[in-house]
Amino acid sequence: MVTGGSRGLGAATGRALAEVGFDVAITYREDRGGAERAAATVAGAGRQTALYELDLADLTAVASIGSLIASRHRPAVLVNNAGETFRGDISTTKTPAVQRMLNVNVAAPIVLTRELAPALSSHEEAGSIVNVSSISGIAGSSNAVYASTKAAVLGLTRSLAVELAPAVRVNAVIPGVFDTDMNHDALADERVRKAALGAIPLRRIGDPTELASVVAFLAGPGSSYITGACVSVDGGVLATVALDRSESEDS
Predict the structure, then answer these.
(1) How far apart are the C-alpha atoms of 229 and 172, rounded to whole Å?
(2) Residue 146: active-site member
(3) Which residue in 4, 122, 136, 174 is deepest, having the highest Cβ count within 10 Å?
(4) Pick the catalytic residue: 28, 52, 146, 225?
(5) pLDDT per residue over 144-165, tens digit each?
(6) CA-to-CA distance for 192 and 169, rounded, in angstroms?
(7) Is the separation of the CB atoms in 116 and 108 below 8 Å?
(8) CA 41, CA 18: separation in Å to the nearest integer?
(9) How far apart are CA 86 and CA 100, in angstroms?
């Protein structure tokens, strides 16, 4: 099961999972056309797919769909990919936006884990949960609420890794800047793009397939002895942050 699988990192993840042998259930909020295109790539890899319309801010609906998918498909993998953001500082962040980000980014993964854990643990091999965080969850950002939710995802990952072991492995990926619809408008601004590239040691924006391949690895048997890991896929951004802090402390 991949949440937010109709476009961007989610669509690439669904395709990558199909390519390594998984059938894929995709949730989407509004973009049915995008979900169908994502499903076509899964079918192109020779696997089956199912589509579920779901607003992850509605936790009652999240529980219902999670229970349905658990009983209907008995998934071995849950990828909590979908995320909600708001571009603006704390003074312009209204309470409904705060609640929506908390629900989509933190509460929904908790509810889905609760609903799917029995199915994930029912397979011969350990089930797998992969949570998608963000570099802002470690380094911070001007969007304090979003950054705090993504930091919470990392704490959730480590805690669930202990709680659900050995039946379910739980890991997280920490994406940097990727070429996705969410980032399109910001990266279209040449000043923003130049600043982003200057902060990335590899000096390029990530392609969604590069994150998806790491998710597929963490979901599959090749990572059978990995749980509680938070893997940066960021072109080296967090290494730069760590170096800057170290140099500051030395001085």
Answers:
(1) 6
(2) yes
(3) 4
(4) 146
(5) 999 999 999 999 999 999 999 9
(6) 37
(7) no
(8) 8
(9) 10
